[in-house]
Design brief:
The chain is α+β, with helices and mostly antiparallel strands and about 300 residues long. The protein has two domains: about 170 residues, no CATH class; about 110 residues, Immunoglobulins (Immunoglobulin-like, Sandwich). It has five helices and ten strands; from the N terminus they run αααααββββββββββ. Strands 1, 3, 4, 6, 7, 8 and 10 form a seven-stranded antiparallel β-sheet that branches. A three-stranded mixed β-sheet has the order 5-2-9, with no helix packed on it. Strand 6 and strand 7 form a beta hairpin. Helix 1 runs antiparallel to helix 2, helix 2 packs antiparallel against helix 3 and helix 3 packs antiparallel against helix 5. The two termini are about 40 Å apart. The relative contact order is 0.12.
């Protein structure tokens, strides 16, 4: 049984192959004495077949995780891993197991249980927007104890004489620490040639990126570290929508925070005009509700323009 994936939105190749094949160890064939089995039945399914049947859907689910192209697909793939690992645990616990495979089977059941727990935890964070980037969600599952445990358990079964060859999906590695930009960095440096100035003060407890947009597309975006002020000068005259996004771990390739992300839009547009030497617009965002006077509305990663 094989499966393969393709590159996710992060651009990292996350293709993988999981090939599961084990030799028969249980149930007897015709014409001779039945081989030793934990369940002495001539009709018992050979252990290798039971192993393949149990792990096949798990491999399919993991393949969907590695091939997911957006957070919705990742959410559904994680659900498939949850359900398939549960079925695999039930099937392996009821399978006829040769004495030599008992320890490996126990380890594999424990690893699959851990994998289900890992998939559930990542899925909760995806749905709660604590994880906002595809590669980080995939990497979180790949770094869990479940994935490592499955590999180790299959290795133990191989050493016991029940070989299985498995390569877990090559999911993106998690960053060693949250990535940030220097305060005031222009994430998008457009809309210049004018006399307008935008001054933003970030009183949140996390970093933020503030964006001026026209016709649904970002024109200028600036990175403001938590508790800091940032400025954009030379803004071209015109009417702009104003957005900001907050979070942790800025992914420069995806141009978004990967964790604890939030997206907000000011309801009113803002005009930059050349009158009096140019408009200076000062915006302060607060960590607590009720401290500002601007009307805002929540957005999501698909409705907010990419900084």
């Amino acid at each position: 049984m094989t499966f393969s994936g393709s590159a996710g939105r992060s651009g990292l190749v996350v293709g993988a192959v999981l090939l599961l094949a084990a030799c028969s160890g249980g149930g007897g064939g015709g014409g001779g004495a039945a081989a030793p089995s934990a369940t002495p039945s001539a009709a018992a399914t050979p252990f290798g077949t039971s192993l393949d049947q149990a792990l096949g859907p798990v491999g399919t689910g993991l393949g969907k995780v590695s091939a997911a192209k957006d957070m919705g697909e990742l959410d559904r793939a994680l659900g498939a891993v949850e359900s398939s690992t549960g079925r695999a645990v039930r099937d392996l616990n009821s399978a006829a197991v040769p004495a030599g495979a008992t320890a490996g089977r126990t380890d594999l059941v424990n690893a699959l249980t851990a994998l289900a727990t890992d998939a559930s935890a990542v899925r909760v964070d995806v749905q709660g927007k604590k994880l906002c980037a595809l590669a980080v969600g995939q990497g979180r599952l790949g770094a869990g104890q479940g994935m490592a445990g499955v590999t180790a358990a299959l290795g133990k079964l191989k050493e016991a004489g029940f070989p299985a060859t498995a390569t877990v999906p090559q999911l993106p590695a998690l960053p060693a620490q949250p990535r940030t930009l220097e305060n005031g960095t222009l994430v998008r440096d457009g809309g210049k040639g004018g006399t307008g100035t935008l001054e933003v003060t970030n009183n949140f407890t996390v970093d933020a990126v503030f964006t001026l947009a026209a016709d649904g597309k970002a024109v200028a975006s600036v990175y403001a570290a938590k508790g800091q002020q940032a400025t954009v000068t030379g803004i071209a005259d015109g009417s702009y929508d104003f957005y900001y996004t907050t979070g942790v771990d800025w992914d420069p390739d995806a141009r978004q925070f990967t964790q604890n992300c939030d997206f907000v839009k000011f309801q009113d547009k803002h005009e930059f005009t050349p009158d009096g030497g140019g408009t200076i617009w000062k915006v302060t965002v607060h960590a607590k509700d009720g401290q500002g006077n601007a009307k805002v509305e929540g957005q999501n990663v698909n409705s907010a323009p990419q900084p």
